[in-house]
Each structure stands twice: as structure tokens, then as C-alpha cells.
Design goal:
L-2-Hydroxyisocaproate Dehydrogenase, Chain A, domain 2; Rossmann fold; three-stranded antiparallel β-sheet; 14 strands; 11 helices; alpha/beta; six-stranded parallel β-sheet
Length: about 325
């Protein structure tokens, strides 16, 4: 049986971690494309030379030619400029839209049967643009954001409650930006509501709510927190891990329910936009969007997030993309 092929577009910080994780998990043969001459070849050679130590037999190669992504089953796109301190994700729009247009044209030409996961920011706009330029079916084009944002939320809850993060379930919906919506009502530790445990810890509902609100705000600003600390770039370990979880679900047809930036056809009252929602990921990509009841407050927050996404798309269209 031939191995699956994973194409990584962009050989920066996230691309390097993606290549290493894909190889170590033996998800398939990896090819990393980047415009910078020799850089992807150097990174992948470095990773490949650890194959005996890490125990993987898959091929890991770098290239400066899009032809080498031919036949890829999964394409993960990180190409674009990362955020710098003081920049919003939206500031990146014009520059990264130009890059994404070129990427989409080449993926359409050389890997027309692939399923595409996009990490490039501003995410919701980049996913929309890729679908528009490539003409791919919506189920084969998705964005990585919710898996990462939800992991951040779950991590903060685990730290606060002093429990294993493995037992924390938390979900973040909406656009990938400051308007994202961590769903507090469903956050739980092995089924026990996180709010109930916080109330027990503090013996005070108001204090528990205050602590939860702080975790919600930290989740929304988590990317910026990392940018501020690094000073020379943005998060790369956690976004790569999140995208690999999505790729694994697709390659192994796991039917995992993960929050992804998916195209909506009326779900959650949204039509024709990419928004972060829970979805079943399997061999056909986004196989089903999981819709569930939101209370009035949650619905208002999601509507606000969707509005930010629609404004971003309108800005992108005004710029001619």
C-alpha cells in the first residue's frame, strides 16, 4: 500500500514543526515547499537525518518547485507573513492575500484532488480566498483555528483547577480573532461543568464567574500574548500540533468532532461564510457541521464574531481579491 502524501506550503516556523510531527507520527511522505531557495531543503534534511533516532521511514523532502506537491492527499498552508508586535491579524490582509492567491492557483494545478488545511492569517479571509481561487468543493477547504483556540482554553482551565488537561473538554467557536467565542456553558472536566468546579473551589459564584471571564479573555488574546513574549514572531508549536490533529483525523478517517473554520450553509444562521464551528472530520474532509443550541448570550457573541468575519471578507473584496 502506497503511503499518503502531505504537502506543506511554507517552510517557516510552523512548517518546520509540521514536517517533524508528520514524520514522527508517520502520517505519510512529506514535501515542504517554500519560495526561499535551499531553506526547505535544509530544514527537511535536518528532520530526515533524525529518522533513525525518531524511528520513522517516511520521506521528508524540501523543494522550491510547486510541481513536487503533485498527487498530495493533504495540503497544509502556512505561507504568509507572521504577525509582529502591535499588528492585528487584519493588518496582514493585503500582503497575505497576494501570497494566498498564488498558492491557490498552484495547488489547483498540481494537487487538484487534495484536502486543504489553511493556517495563514487572517484565517477566515485566507480560507475564503483559497476556495474562491481554487474552485475546490467547500468540504475540501478548511481553516485551523478552533482546535488551537480550544486547546488554549482547555489548558487554562486545567491549570486553574489543578487537573489533567486530558480530562478537560472546551470549545471555541467563531472567527479566529479577538471576537472568537469560547463556550463556557459546555466547558467540562470529564463531564462535570467547569463552572461548577470553579464555584466549589472559590465557594462564591461571582468569584468563579470572574475567574472564568479572565480565562475567556486570555484565550481570545492568547496568540497576541505569545507574540508579545517572543518579540520576533508568532506561535508555531501549538498551531502546528492543531493542524496535525486535523490532518490525522482526515487521513485515518477518524470522524473526530473538532472545531474548524468550515463553510456554512445556513448552520447557526450563517450562509456562505467560513466560520469556526464543530465539524466531523474524515476522509472526505469536513463531512458534517455539528449544529447545537446556543443560548441568547452565546448567539449574540457568535453573531458579533460572524460580523467581524463578513467585514473582513468585504475589506478583502474591496482590495480586489
Amino acid at each position: 500500500m502506497s503511503r499518503k502524501k502531505i504537502a506543506l506550503i511554507g517552510g517557516g516556523q510552523i512548517g518546520g514543526v509540521l514536517a517533524q510531527l508528520a514524520a514522527m507520527r508517520q502520517l505519510g511522505d512529506v514535501v515542504m515547499y517554500d519560495i526561499v531557495e535551499d531553506m526547505p531543503q535544509g530544514k527537511t534534511l535536518d528532520i530526515a537525518e533524525a529518522s533513525r533516532i525518531d524511528g520513522f521511514d517516511v520521506s521528508v523532502k524540501g523543494t522550491n518547485d510547486y510541481k513536487d506537491i503533485a498527487g498530495a492527499d493533504i495540503v497544509i498552508i502556512t505561507a504568509g507573513l507572521p504577525r509582529k508586535p502591535g499588528m492585528s491579524r487584519d493588518d496582514l490582509l493585503t500582503t497575505n492575500a497576494k501570497i494566498m492567491k498564488t498558492v491557490a492557483e498552484n495547488v489547483k494545478q498540481y494537487a487538484p484532488g487534495s484536502i486543504v488545511i489553511i493556517i495563514s492569517n487572517p484565517l477566515d479571509a485566507m480560507v475564503t480566498l483559497f476556495k474562491k481561487v481554487s474552485g475546490f468543493d467547500a468540504n475540501r477547504v478548511m481553516g485551523q483555528a478552533g482546535v488551537l483556540d480550544s486547546s488554549r482554553f482547555a489548558t487554562f482551565i486545567a491549570w486553574e483547577l489543578g487537573v489533567s488537561v486530558k480530562d478537560v473538554n472546551a470549545m471555541v467557536l467563531g472567527g479566529h480573532g479577538d471576537t472568537m467565542v469560547p463556550i463556557v456553558r459546555y466547558a467540562n472536566v470529564n463531564g462535570i461543568p467547569a463552572m461548577e468546579l470553579l464555584e466549589k473551589k472559590y465557594g462564591d459564584k461571582a468569584k468563579a464567574k470572574e475567574v472564568m471571564n479572565q480565562m475567556v479573555e486570555r484565550t481570545k488574546m492568547a496568540g497576541g500574548e505569545v507574540v508579545k513574549l517572543l518579540k520576533t514572531g508568532s506561535a508555531f508549536y501549538s498551531p502546528a500540533s492543531a493542524a496535525i490533529a486535523m490532518a490525522e483525523a482526515i487521513l485515518y478517517d477518524e470522524k473526530r468532532v473538532l472545531p474548524v473554520c468550515a463553510y456554512l450553509n445556513g448552520e447557526f444562521g450563517v450562509n456562505g461564510y467560513y466560520v469556526g464551528v464543530p465539524a466531523v472530520l474524515g476522509s472526505n474532509g469536513v463531512e458534517k457541521v455539528i449544529e447545537f443550541e446556543l443560548d441568547n448570550e452565546e448567539k449574540a457573541l457568535l453573531d458579533n464574531s460572524v460580523k467581524a468575519v463578513t467585514n473582513l471578507i468585504a475589506d478583502m473584496e474591496r482590495l480586489g481579491f
